[in-house]
Structure formats: C-alpha cells, structure tokens
Write a structure and sequence with these properties.
With about 70 residues, this protein is an alpha+beta fold. The chain is built from two helices and three strands; from the N terminus they run E-E-H-E-H. The protein has a three-stranded antiparallel sheet, covered by helices on one side.
Length: about 70
C-alpha cells in the first residue's frame, strides 16, 4: 500500500511523494532522509483547530481499514 512520504531536499524544503514501504527502505539505504506524512494541516487553519483536525484525519484513516 502506498503512503505519503516527504524527502528533504534542503534545510527549508521538502517534497511530498507516494511510495511503498519497500521503495522507502531502498531510498533510506541509499542515505536519503525520508519522513512519513501522518497528517496534513493547511496554513490558514487556526492553532486551536490543529489537534481536532489531526484526530479527525486519524479517525478517518482508521475507519477506512474496515
């Protein structure tokens, strides 16, 4: 199953992409810094809504398993 990952290309820039865990393991073996993206929050979202939005995304991801 493909998941969203982020590769660091500069100290301030990262590029999101989709890949399988096997592909990411190969990239990490090559020495690349790759992080998994768990939740996405838009820039315009107020700070008080960040945690509820992340919990909603987690619940949606959990419900899609069934």
């Amino acid at each position: 199953m493909k998941c969203w990952y982020s590769i660091d290309v500069h100290a301030r820039w990262s590029v999101p992409f989709q890949a399988t865990p096997a592909q990411v393991a190969d990239m990490r073996a090559d020495g690349l810094v790759i992080d998994q993206i768990c939740n996405t929050v838009p820039d315009w979202c107020p700070a008080c809504l960040v945690r509820p939005l992340c919990r909603l995304q987690d619940a949606w991801r959990w419900l899609r398993l069934f």
